[in-house]
Design brief:
mainly alpha
Length: 252
């Protein structure tokens, strides 16, 4: 079977900080391990202890990749939920504020986990993911599913942008249109998105099979995954953040 080339992630062309990003790029297996560890930590019964560290890790990974918007969105959303979950009940006591605070305290865990997972999705190509999963002898069903998933989200995001543009032309994407016709706006967005998602999933599944991702023969990656200094540094940073979270526990 011909060698399988591991393409660099889309939209990561070398510009001013390209060399830094190349040296700081993590192995896909390390990124998967980061997502699993962070998710298990923040979703545990005492997960709020590790949530600030997980948010800091997600912001740091975004900054290393020069994903400024993702870093700002993650930091801003985490700050808003921290204010709503811990400060708002002190300023405005009341049942509604209490319910909102509980929702923020629970949702901030998902924000931290998604922030680290976004780095995996944004910086890992499907071929790189499949090569990494083959290196750890993952089942073919998992390898194909994750490879298709990495292509699915960008396709759906593009379809969603097109649907919103069409709604904007019809006046339904503005605040006034949403206020006057909320059911129609929801229908105009949901129906095309469901159809586009089904079509994209079928096309991507067929493409994955045609490229040999479901083959029983083991393809050879032109750039096999290897652990490097960046993976060791990420592990040390994660351990340091975990220790710092435990040390600061009596203060929280």
């Amino acid at each position: 079977m011909p060698a399988q080339r591991v393409d660099p992630p889309a939209g990561r062309a070398d510009r001013g900080g390209g060399a830094l990003r190349r040296h700081a790029r993590l192995d896909p297996r390390a990124k998967i391990l980061l997502v699993v560890i962070v998710s298990l930590a923040v979703m545990s019964p005492d997960g709020l202890i590790f949530t600030p560290a997980a948010l800091a890790l997600g912001v740091g990974l975004a900054l290393v990749e020069s994903a400024w918007r993702r870093a700002a969105a993650l930091a801003g959303l985490g700050g808003v939920m921290w204010i709503g979950g811990w400060l708002a009940p002190l300023w405005l006591p009341g049942p509604l504020v209490l319910v909102t605070a509980l929702a923020c305290q629970f949702s901030i865990r998902f924000v931290a986990s998604v922030g680290v997972a976004a780095h995996l999705v944004a910086t890992t190509s499907p071929t790189g993911m499949s090569a990494a999963l083959r290196a750890v002898h993952a089942p073919r069903a998992i390898a194909v599913t994750l490879a298709v998933m990495l292509r699915f989200f960008p396709v759906v995001a593009g379809e969603a942008a097109a649907v919103v543009d069409a709604m904007r032309l019809g006046g339904l994407a503005r605040a006034g249109g949403l206020g006057r016709h909320p059911i129609r706006a929801l229908e105009r967005f949901a129906v095309p998105m469901v159809a586009a998602s089904l079509r994209a999933s079928e096309d991507l599944s067929a493409s994955a099979i045609l490229r040999g991702l479901g083959s029983r023969r083991r393809p050879t990656a032109m750039t096999p995954p290897r652990f490097g200094p960046a993976d060791l540094a990420a592990g040390l940073v994660l351990a340091a953040l975990a220790v710092l979270s435990l040390e600061l526990r009596p203060l929280t």
